[in-house]
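Recall that a protein's primary structure is simply its ordered list of amino acids. Everything else, from secondary elements to tertiary packing, is in principle encoded there. The following example makes that idea concrete.
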Amino acid sequence: MGNRAVFVIAGPDGHTRHRSSHGAVALDLDLLAGPEVVLPYLRAHAPDDSWYPDDMVEAGVLADPSRRLLLVFAWEGPAASLRTRAAGLELLRLAWPGWEVRRLHDGQSGLRAHLGLAPQERDTDVCPGPALEPDDEELAGPDPLVAVVTVGTGRCHVLADIGDHPVEEGPALLDRLRDAPDHGRYRLRADAGIHVDPARRRVGWWLNTARAHARTVGRRWPGWTVEFWEDRWEEHVRASGGRFTPPAPDRAAALADVRAQALRRWAGPRADVRARLVAALPHATIGQGFGPSVTAERAAAARAAVERAYAAAVGT
């Protein structure tokens, strides 16, 4: 089981693809090293002539040096937390000065659309997370892995965010939650959310991470108006009438947190994992989806880029 990521380097003559079976977890932190470090690092991954299925890719990057454009999505890391998402994006833009940096809310399907490629077939099976009780232990942590569902003017449900986004259930979501625990109000952080207004037949939804084919999810709600709020959770706060009120992110604390994570990620050299496995297991078949080595000099350059971005953010 890996953490699949795709890296695309685009330019006027086309694009090249590179892959990583394990590169999705820390992608946000890798990118904070800035273009001088990151572009050679991405190119050093194994080339890939095919595409993973859209729904299986957890993180991705499209970097176009000629246009100075960076598109990125990730399921984990600073981007996945309401607490640190805005700060992570702020530092990322400062680490890539002169570049246009954008989050892709529709994952690899959005990346492929940018390249003018036809959409892949999507998985039509929907596996939503279960509804949680108000005292569920998942709600005790600083970043609960949950999706908040508010319905009309009086109901608030909290689901485990361990499967598909609840918006993908379509109107069947309302039937499933008819007898689910009602939290009344939810004041903690969340990964995702949806507000359903049955009287007006309107739906609004958001997420911190990315969902492949997110732009077409309205097809699951025939006869309804569906609005994709991307990562604008504040829209949900307004639509819910105060039943979803997470704490506002602490910018200073979040910037410091992301900086610390990035410096740990680039603390020193990294070995070529595949080369070590090949040496240790000469008769085994070893895949190509491992990250390349990182020299001490490149790690130091990455830390310097992180520190420059942080200093610019805090005004020092």
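The chain has a mean pLDDT of 92. The first strand starts at residue 5 and ends at 11.
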